[in-house]
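I am writing to request your help with a piece of structural work I have in hand. I am sending you one protein, given as its amino acid sequence and as whole-number tokens for its backbone shapes. Kindly check, if you would, that the fold set down in the tokens agrees with what the sequence suggests. You will find the record immediately after this paragraph:
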Amino acid sequence: MQKTQIAQALGILMDYQVEWISDASAVKVAEKGRRIGLSYAEAADDVLYAASEGGANVYYISYNKDMTAGFIQDCATWAKAFHAAATEVEESVIQEGDKQILAYTIKFDSGHFIQALTSTPRSLRSKGRPGERLVIDEAAFVDDIKELLKAALAMTIWGGQVRIISTHDGEDNPFNELVKDVRAGRYNYGLHRITFDDALHDGLFRKICAVTGRAWSPEAEAQWRMEIVNRYKPNEDEELFCVPARGGGAWLSRVLIESCMKPAPVLRFTGTAAFNDASPERRAVEMQEWIDEHLRPLLAFNPALRHALGQDFARSGDLSVIAPGEIAQNLSLRVPFLVELKNVPYNQQLQVLFAIADALPRLSGVVIDSRGNGSYIGEAAHDKYGSVVVRLMPTEGWYRDNMPPYKAAFEDQTITVPLDDNVLLDHRAIKLVRGVPRVPEGKTSEGRHGDAAMACVYLHAASRMDYGPVEVASRRRRNADTLMQGY
């Protein structure tokens, strides 16, 4: 039986999987959506190839250990399904200079083997004996993909085969450049494009239901699709539908962000249901106790320096983040701490905001996100501190003008932000949207929306305002009740 007939007879593989393994091109490339099972199909093909007398060795490379271990286990499962005589999975360590590479190997009675490697070995260039196959999984994410592709394609000189599989990681990634070159006809490679919707059309959700015991229906499939798409927002086009993000994905690299991170507190307060249901007076007392215990010890600022403040406002869905900053003589900006407030009423947000702003000795600029309900916070701050407060309604033009200087501060090492994983993830959430850097719509990670990053962006903009340092002399304070009454 032909291998595609075997796969179809098993009733396991879907049409797009069978089409992939049926493509006999020496080099073939697949751009795909996440978790559609293409590597699973590749494992079936590799077992058939390595187990046959006319086949050869197969080498598999991906970017992390879990993916590599998962692939070799899939190979072991297929070997049993095909009744291919094979050894159990062997684990070994390959020493390359001062680097150790973990390898998983299955040997077949044919004399061939499948070897899955957890990293890219330099010795890959020595591979490529007649008929040997190389599989690069999630190629867009492996280290030094350009060099790997050069070594891989050299394997075809003696009749070797190369399979390159990946989701996208940015428009400028070498994997996407390869896809575009193949599509343009520069290379005579097989090219497959399998989106999440393509996989659904060919029965992906039906297969999931069969495996998990869930009842299939058109309505259940539509609901599941919506849930998956929402889970991947704002990156669903790249992760699921084979549309590489413009500008190479994240606007700020992890290395660049981490180079400007220093240990500093990130205070977090979440308003419970009981807190929100309490009387305004009780909430004010509880918030003041929190301020006195946690925030007050951090409010010792250098009176010789200028200071600024930014706030990304939210009431319940996202986080409201307040970022104060000290501006040194060389114009570098230090964020000494951040405050994250979740599900906190307006007046209690103002308590925290005023406690911080009142403690800044030379307040020279404040930028507050005043869209929607944030206009209340912005207006109250403007009433208290005057024209030093900008009640920002950010537009595409504002992002275009203010985001590049913020990135330049990281590149020039003239800003430090708290060393915190959520702060890092929030900065990584900034993307190019229609060519302009900003946080896209929708949640970015763990229920956040780039909140800490945007507070720091507003702070940086505030630090660059033309206003000189001011001594704040508050006019009559207007509390929340009088503001609501239009007093």
In short: The first strand starts at residue 27 and ends at 32.
